[in-house]
Amino acid sequence: MAQWTSAVGAAQLARLLTSQQERPAGPGARRPPAYRALADGIRLLVLEGRVPVAARLPAERELALSLSVSRTTVAAAYEALRTEGFLESRRGAGSWTAVPAGNPLPARGLEPLPPEALGSMIDLGCAAPPAPEPWLTRAVQGALEELPPYAHTHGDYPAGLPALRSMLAERYTARGIPTMPEQIMVTTGAMGAIDAICHLFAGRGERIAVESPSYANILQLMREAGARLVPVAMAEGLAGWDLDRWRQVLRDAAPRLAYVVADFHNPTGALADEDQRRRLVDAARAAGTVLVVDETMSELYLDPELTDAMPRPVCGFDPGGSAVITVGSASKAFWAGMRIGWVRAAPDVIRSLVAARAYADLGTPVLEQLAVNWLMSTDGWEQAVGIRRGQARENRDALVAALRRELPGWEFDVPRGGLTLWVRTGGVSGSRLAEAGERVGVRVPSGPRFGVDGAFEGYVRLPFTVGGAVADEAAARLAAAARLVETGIPGGVEAPRTFVA
Ligand SMILES: Cc1ncc(COP(=O)(O)O)c(C=O)c1O
To answer: Ligand 1 centre and the CA of 501: distance in Å?
Structure first.
């Protein structure tokens, strides 16, 4: 059986290698031999996830031709990569990329550390800021006033409280997407929504196309549901969705579901434009794939010019209403502690989801639903989200400034919204950084947590949850962690216990 899941052609690998920036050598530094430079280039492509793990590399002769180097150079580079654990080969089966055994792949389960256990640790593990008070308190007080009539019922609302379903439907309608309450189901967070969708559509062994990178906990949820994840690489920087690639993958792999975060993608922060949205829906429809669109971040536009210029929701490009299922959440716009999410879909899909849910959690707590409904029926929601946007914007700008000062070699694009910065760590292993961070007082999730197959070793994700002096201190600790990694961490390291939200 072949050991590889995808292949990189010689011309493609040559293109990727030549697109790598020359890393500046220090004064007086000698150029490495050609085979070493080639091995380093391939290693970096694997670390950065631009060549996936378990991808078959071209035969030595083909790569030599594409790069105009001798076959001996390629053979020596492959041999060096094999010795370092970045390549495995078997006679007759070829060579495929790998990560070294000592290089910890992401832990499968991601567990939030309770706030009281953090001590003096700066927590960059979690992209979930505190509640925008006083709105949490006001919303709960408002909910308490509305509770008495519900107290006389059994309290199980598997599709959600009728009042909140109507409110959410009205909000979609106001965004230009006519929606009836029968098209809404309230869930326990976006996680609850996607869990229900996976159970209904993607049984064991079913394929789900996902952005690569993507949000770690959803990837894990899908793995646990037994799905086979089909990664679709995000384009460089904030360009996001390469629609030729999406069309090809959806056509070739014909996955049951495709999961995308089109509004301020987690972790890259990319925002899909309307053309990308339209083409995504078309590609999904053509392949018979249901497109699950996670709008958890959609209200977190941080650049003021976006206030009246956000692209239409993806479901707005699906007039038939059967190609797209939309997931929303109060977690990022308001507070993750509410655990309120929702699904918008065709009424028959909602009915099936509701029926399936009876075996999971029966329903979502009534008081929290009333609180969100109270916020949305007053100006509380807009006020609260406004506070949240202001905090996130300030934190983003503080973090960006501190990183540029402390870690000028780290590269990132500043997203226009969302809560996360996806940072290329100048060739330093993100997993090692996460380990070293634990020692110097900063928790940070490494890139591979957001990849399907251990890719993105050369990345970390940083959230906009700290600002001011704490952002400065966080960047200083990250720089200390990077120095530790570069000079070798003494005494070995424990497995990283970072977590993400
Ligand atoms: C894209 C995305 N989807 C879903 C979630 C989880 O949302 P919830 O707290 O509503 O379950 C998150 C949390 O970080 C997220 O970033």
So the answer is: 6
341 lines ligand 1 (CB under 6 A): yes
- Collect all residues with Cβ–Cβ distance below 8 Å to 55 and sequence separation of at least 6: 4, 5, 6, 7, 8, 96, 97
Nearest to 312 by CA among 346, 282, 278: 278
336-347: burial string, b at 16+ Cβ within 10 Å, e else: bebbbbbbbbbe
> Which structural domain, as residue segments, surrounds residue 284?
167-381
**Residue 215 CB–ligand 1 contact under 6 Å:** yes
Do 180 and 310 lie in one domain? The reply is: yes
CATH number of residue 424's parent domain: 3.90.1150.10
How crowded is residue 205: how many other Cβ atoms within 10 Å of its Cβ?
Answer: 9
- Residue-wise pLDDT tens digits, 231-276: 888 998 899 999 998 998 899 889 999 999 999 999 999 999 999 9
Q: CB of 331 closer than 6 A to ligand 1?
A: yes
Residues 206 and 278 in one domain: yes
Same domain, 268 and 389: no
Last residue of one domain, picked from the residues 97, 123, 144: 97
Tally of domains within the chain: 3
Asked if pLDDT for residue 115 goes beyond 80, the answer is no
Average pLDDT over residues 292-299: 98
Find out whether 50 and 237 touch, Cβ atoms under 8 Å: no
Verify whether ligand 1 is closer than 6 Å to residue 243 (CB atom).
no
119 lies in the same domain as 260: no
Pocket test for ligand 1, best of 214, 266, 298 (most atoms within 8 A of CB): 266
User: Residue 26 is part of a domain; what is its CATH number?
Assistant: 1.10.10.10
Atom of ligand 1 nearest to the CA of 188: 11
Measured by CA distance, the residue closest to atom 14 of ligand 1 is 501
> Residue 130 is encoded by which pair of tokens?
């505190």
Answer yes or no: do 93 and 199 share one domain. Answer: no
Distance between Cα 189 and ligand 1 center (Å): 7
Tell me the two tokens of residue 45: 């492509």
Please state the pTM of the whole predicted model: 0.84
191 and 87 in a single domain? The answer is: no
Q: Which atom of ligand 1 is nearest to the CA of 501?
A: 14
pLDDT in tens, 452-462: 876 788 899 99
